[in-house]
Amino acid sequence: MDMLERSPRANAGAVKTESASAHRPVAQANILPLTTDEHGQIPTKQRNILVALTDTSIDDEAVSVACSIARKRKVEAYAVYGIQVPRKRALDDEMPEETEKANRTLDAAKEVADQLQASLETEIVHTRHLGQALIQEAIDHDCALIVMGVSYQLGVNGQFALSETADYVLKYAPCRVWLVRGPCNSPNCLPGQSGERV
Question: pLDDT digit string (tens) for 172-188?
């Protein structure tokens, strides 16, 4: 299958310096149950959690949700950053700018996980189709849940619209999918939708 090419995080051994973002507050997730068997255990198949990262402001909250649930349920959490590779390029072509952006995003996700004292495995995936790659990663890691952050965006009709990737994952994922929607930035938002307190 030439759909995706996995790669470990580039410069994984790089020395980190403490940044101001390391002390930012982390959103706490309400923990909802995943499916359990008659003994209260999560079945061995489909037990882990995948969080899709997109280098947006909602990533921290999505990671917080995934790590909080994974920690409580004693399962693994995986963060995946997908780099969409144009068809004119080979999947294994080096894309230094995109890889640097992916590494920054994954480092920020690890900081959130560290603040929650949760384990988070990170991975960069080169792919032609992000939705298909996320579903394949969820299958490969035996995930019972995919958590995705989605930005508030309006379609051509002025209504809230999902991205192509989120729509695809919602339609075809073999497991549960939770969306963490960002605040409404439209002047037409109802009170409380923009993220401020009313």
Answer: 999 999 999 887 776 66
